[in-house]
Amino acid sequence: MNDRTPAGDYALRYVERLVQLLHRMDCEAVSRVIEIFSKARSSGNTLFFLGNGGSAATAAHFANDMGVCASPEGQVPFRALSLTTNNAFITCLANDFGYETIFVRQLRNLMRPGDVVVGISASGNSPNAVKALEYANDNNGISVAIVGFDGGVMKKIAAHAIHVESEKGEYGPVEDVHMVLDHLISLYLASAKD
Predict the structure, then answer these.
(1) Sequence-separated (6 or more) residues with CB below 8 Å from residue 99
(2) Which of 93, 98, 148, 167 has the most beta carbons within 10 angstroms of its beta carbon?
(3) Which residues contact 60 (CB under 8 A, 6 or more apart)?
(4) Dist. CA 38–CA 61, nearest whole Å
(5) In order of start, what are the domains of the chain with their CATH numbers?
(6) How far apart are CA 132 and CA 115, in angstroms?
(7) Nearest CA to 153 among 137, 171, 172, 170?
(8) Per-residue pLDDT reduced to its tens digit, 88-108
(9) Alpha carbon distance 141, 162 (integer Å)
(10) What is the dihedral of CA 28, 31, 33, 38, to 10 degrees?
(11) Which has the closest alpha carbon to 155: 129, 189, 174, 192?
(12) Are 175 and 146 in contact (CB under 8 A)?
């Protein structure tokens, strides 16, 4: 006997949960992050995106969208880079200095004053992402946390945060909303005139 929830019912509940999380999003926080990104473009600063697991994929996607979709012909392009995509460098750093350093060591090489470091994490507690935001704070960068659950350490230490408040362990819905934020922000900035 199959006592599993019918797939259609499960899908409906999942979509309803996403809609609930989206409705609770702090759109003023989103607006502040858009302004920070816009100022970075105007000043020639770089946006660095980072995360682990699913959030690493979101970081790469976000950097792509900022560098391509939000940088149409006729506009000053964004300088955007994901710190999750150079596998040789990441494994070198993890092997030689420890996994918790993989983002800080890249920032040490690349970050300039005024650059924006965007840490993406469902829990907000990933040690390597926390260290990256701390590095930005200590070295004249601008730290941004995009987090879920209770916000974790990253929400507390970031200069700016977008918090998808959710139940602990709700990775799928939180990561889905983080991707919505990627597209919302990049599409808005694609049409914005600096």
Answers:
(1) 128
(2) 148
(3) 49, 82, 84, 85
(4) 18
(5) 7-191 (3.40.50.10490)
(6) 12
(7) 137
(8) 999 999 999 999 999 999 999
(9) 18
(10) -160
(11) 129
(12) no
Tokens of 88: 């040789």
Tokens representing 153 are 């350490």
What secondary structure does DSSP assign to 64-125, as a single string? HHHHTTTS-TTSPPPEEEETT--HHHHHHHHHHH-GGGTTHHHHHHH--TT-EEEEEESSS-
Per-residue tokens: 113? 């004053």
From CA 148, how far away is CA 132, in angstroms rounded? 18
Which residues does 31 contact at the CB level (< 8 Å), separation at least 6? none
What six digits make up the tokens of 3? 């006592």
Q: What is the pLDDT of residues 114-173, one digit of tens each?
A: 999 999 999 999 999 999 999 999 999 999 999 999 999 999 999 999 999 999 999 999
